[in-house]
Amino acid sequence: MELVPLGPGFGVEVRGVGLLDVATDAEAYKAVRAAFEDHSLLVFRDQPIADDVQVAFSRAFGPLELTKVASVGAGSFYSRLTNLGEKGEIVPPDHRQVRIAQANALWHTDSSFKKIPALASVLTARVLPGEGGDTEFTSTRLAWDRLPGDLQARLRDAVATHSYANSRDQIHPDLANAEERRALPPVRWRLNWRNPANDRRALYVASHAYAIDGMDDRDARQLLAELLDEATRREFVYVHRWRQGDAVMWDNRAMLHRGRPWDYTRERSMIRTTISATDADGLGEVRPPVVH
């Protein structure tokens, strides 16, 4: 297996081992898992892209998340990110599915708004628009390392509140519908996540986060915005330009990502599978103390 560096201090292209190898061979899984823990972002090129292959690969890393209510693919392992409607037509630019793509252009980490957050996401390119639609990534592990020691100490036990509605409301007041708001109430997580495999911490923030325990709302929002700005400085961002056959996996404990716009009159269809975090991945530590 060969690892080719991609991003500024994180991310590799994996060569010599593919999705099927990881799904069927314990040694291949161990090697790729070690690369995932070390580099946070893995790119596999020229893969046999199919739903069952993607699920078999993803399942090797842990339990799979079911796609949330009111999504294309709800209740299945597949989150279908597309600007096609039910009859295969390209939807208009004010359609909910385009607005969801626009919300995904906010810097975020997947599923921080759920009762069980995500360890990792796997995204595969099914139909590409030709130009645009890149995905940008940055390392919140390296962002944590850049923070001054006194701020790290302050954030070590700080707890933030995340909600799906918070990020969607930034795009359109009706984007998070009543069913989603009921199903996805706010959740609280520590502002950093320690990886038990290597003892390295990462800043745990997202566009879903909006409050910090014990802080005035305005001050909390300002601090969260400053942390996001620091993590996403341009010199620390890797831009993934999609090719047919690409599969990309990233560590949601230690990465932020966002989708970029494209010509919404052209089809772009991607499928994401999401692996839920477990206590073996450090979930127990990122849970805040219970408030009585």
Summarize the topology.
Blueprint: E1 2-5, E2 12-15, H1 19-24, H2 26-39, E3 41-44, H3 51-59, E4 79-82, H4 96-103, E5 118-127, E6 135-139, H5 140-146, H6 149-155, E7 159-162, H7 164-169, H8 178-183, E8 187-190, E9 192-195, E10 200-203, E11 209-212, H9 217-231, E12 237-240, E13 247-251, E14 255-259, E15 269-276, H10 283-286
In short:
This protein has helices at residues 19-24, 26-39, 51-59, 96-103, 140-146, 149-155, 164-169, 178-183, 217-231, 283-286; strands at 2-5, 12-15, 41-44, 79-82, 118-127, 135-139, 159-162, 187-190, 192-195, 200-203, 209-212, 237-240, 247-251, 255-259, 269-276. It is of the alpha+beta class and 292 residues long. Strand 1 and strand 2 (12-15) form a beta hairpin.
Could you walk me through the main structural features you see in this protein, from its secondary elements to its overall organization?
The chain is α+β, with helices and mostly antiparallel strands and 292 residues long. 28% of the residues lie in helices and 25% in strands. It is built from ten helices and 15 strands. It has helices at 19-24, 26-39, 51-59, 96-103, 140-146, 149-155, 164-169, 178-183, 217-231, 283-286; strands spanning 2-5, 12-15, 41-44, 79-82, 118-127, 135-139, 159-162, 187-190, 192-195, 200-203, 209-212, 237-240, 247-251, 255-259, 269-276. Strands 1-2-3-13-5-15-4 form a seven-stranded mixed β-sheet, sandwiched between helices. The chain is globular and about 50 Å long. 38% of the residues are buried.
